[in-house]
Amino acid sequence: MSYFQDIAPIRHEGPDSSNEFAYRHYDPDEIVLGKRMEDHLRLAVAYWHALAYEGGDPFGGRTFDRPWYGDDMAAARAKADAAFDLFRILNVPFFCFHDADVRPEGASFAESRRNLDEICDLFAERMQQTGTKLLWGTANMFSHRRWMAGAATNPDPEIFAYAAASVKACMDVTHRLDGQNYVLWGGREGYETLLNTDLGREAEQAGAFLSKVVDYKHKIGFKGAILIEPKPQEPAKHQYDFDVGTIYGFLKRFGLENEVKLNIEQGHAILAGHSFEHELALAGSLGLLGSIDMNRNDYQSGWDTDQFPNNVPEVALAYYEVLRAGGFTTGGTNFDARLRRQSLDPQDLVLSHVGAIDICARGLKAAAAMLEDGGLERMRAERYQGWDGDAARAMLTREPLETIAERVERVGLDPQPRSGRQERLENWVSRFV
Fold it and tell me: Which residues bind Mg(2+) 2 (predicted)?
């Protein structure tokens, strides 16, 4: 018997089903805006939270007892078997992983790389057997003590070199597994105190590192996207990939805005003082929207709790921005979410994903209905319709400041404000969610 105690694959049974081991709203083949729901959402399970997480939090250690926990290759292979069993039960098309999630740390870099290659050979077999695909891979350059002062931005050039080797190894296996994207998340790319930090030097190091990653992508013929994941702080006091706007400025500075997109997480957006839909809308407007990590934070906790999503209105507004931006291409919806430390049973791991997948399905359908209705876009266009005239457009292009000022006095302009209609718009959204 498998770890999941022969839980049957989860199937769509409709909203009236009383079976908790069934999808009520997620039907992979349902057509939404002319495309299958599965192809819109592109769901993925996060290897680190689903398989590698041990139930710890900042105040206490391991609470889970999984048969694959261990530091050797036998445990790594057992973990892979459990992972693909979970993917089969959930019937999701993708998964994501860090290198450190799937292989034990070796006594040398070469041994760690060989361990990664061996596990990815196993992945390739399981992927061929099951049809599960890789949404993205990434290198964990924040957990081991060597990364305590950063990876690409580390003051020690040998750490920079080790980081480069780690990314190359992980990009190689991601490419070999036909991964759709490669993600860079700089959990320690930041500082604890400015007293020992050279901001200018570290920015140049980060720019040089990312440029090398992009160059290597083209050299090996990797067709997926390079993604950066924004987060403002935690574990670093201040991280350089603070939010969408900050990363856009960084990419522009180093001429990489056409080479790199973003993997945006709900919880990280909130830690940065934003809403998820704000970060998605900004990325969409800049042409940087790549993929998303779907989760939520606890509003009573000040840290990144990585809980499964359960708020349909929030999820609907997020997918509305994804659809407005044209939907996912190489990206998708990765559940960067973990069980609570008291949720010990195999069934908990399955049902947490089932509930989250149904929430995403409901959110997607609500977002599609809003977009099809067109009311929000009509009201948005009405608010800015004054800018459609020739005189208004001239102010943005050819008219100098003094000409605009002279016209204000000559015509005797006395503009009055118009209602922003926020409550009416919120009521309109509520009709769909």
Answer: 265, 268, 304, 306
